């Protein structure tokens, strides 16, 4: 158990799911390893030390569509640009947003730490990337939460946020959010983003242990849109976390249990959810885009999927997609896809015994297709996704409209 300050447990519950968040510190920890040490498992799993020899995300902007980011947190200061607030008018005048969820996600993507050589605090996957904060959701406890989730004028804030982020120069858009149903405007906004070369990453949702439809968990949006990298969460053993939605929209997975992150006011939090897993994957997308800025969204998605580790039997399943992302291997695969020869260093990145570590780019054929599940390779998934978006804008809606869509920050 981490020490150094008062602690409390907060269960943040939304329409689609819940994420447990524990406040760890309200003052600077006495030991520099208290926070960074809590990240060791994630750093190792994602092979970040090796990946940082190739890319740290410099020059890339990741738009965080969320509840807002605290630009003054010591682990994010200088890296955050505060953009539009599309929730304006939901809260009563004078209410200051708490910005917990958004700050937490931003730190996992682009935290740069603080103190001597930045060795204290949170280090994100892409510590040299910039963050564009776009507020499109409210925290559960904000007084305008109910108004925001019921008023028609806020129905397409996500679509507007996506378009805004693209026009503001985002290279990657992180959406650690989910909702039950899709809108035409969101689909069009995603098509617009992909046409501009922007990688979209979204949470698969947290209903995997509570709500089952047939033999799969519900589809969540924007994750289930073609062209969006849908991310599931894994536990400490790198198996599907019980809460993580499992369905054929899931492309890859990342750690989502006991994830250390930053909170407003120089606090530190630990929690679980597909939100955290999504932020980690967005960070890897930022590393790739920094190294290969012209790489298209489908190829970025393929690089992450082709290079995943802990691949399920047969290469794909609805629980973790093509497997758990690995930053060093993803950069190696991106170099192949980009026609380059340089690769991320380190034994883990180069180990030929690992699946898809060398030679072939991976399978490109359809594995299984039936009424409920579509299992495809990274190449087919990405290429089909962009093709569908660019031409017919097809989307499979596998849930009925039983009530008006609500947005939850707790993906």
From TrEMBL:
The protein in question is named Type VII secretion-associated serine protease mycosin
Peptidase S8/S53 domain span = 57-323
Q: Which family does it belong to?
A: Belongs to the peptidase S8 family.
Enumerate the GO terms in the molecular function aspect. peptidase activity
Q: What PANTHER family does this protein's entry cite?
A: CEREVISIN-RELATED, PEPTIDASE S8
A single GO BP: proteolysis
Sorted alphabetically, the keyword list is: Hydrolase, Membrane, Protease, Serine protease, Signal, Transmembrane, Transmembrane helix
The answer, when asked if rRNA-binding is one of the entry's keywords, is no
Signal peptide coordinates: 1-32
Entry annotated with the keyword Nucleotidyltransferase: no
- The residues annotated as the active site are 66, 101, 275
Q: Which SUPFAM superfamilies match?
A: Subtilisin-like
Organism listed in the record:
Nonomuraea antimicrobica
Segments passing through the bilayer? 374-399
One short Pfam name that applies is: Peptidase_S8
